[in-house]
Amino acid sequence: DTPHRIGSHDRDELAPGLRSYHLIYSRQQAKQAHATVKSPRHIVFYRVANDDMIEVVRLLHDAMEVQLHLPND
Predict the structure, then answer these.
(1) Looking at the record's lineage, which domain of life comes first (predicted)?
(2) Of 24, 58, 60, 66, which is most buried with the most CB atoms under 10 A?
(3) Tens digit of pLDDT for each residue in 21-46?
């Protein structure tokens, strides 16, 4: 879809151009017969590289301290 979809957030306070998206917002799209994650606990941190590509920076469990696990660049 779009890197600015509902549920995604600007995270410029962490790094310029950084965005985050909690996977709980995608549980319906990922649903398969007899295999559903009821409460996803991970957040994707990414940057928009260009119109048709994103750069995934990190995938973190939502209980982790974000600032400790993101690259410094």
Answers:
(1) Bacteria
(2) 60
(3) 999 888 766 666 667 777 889 999 99
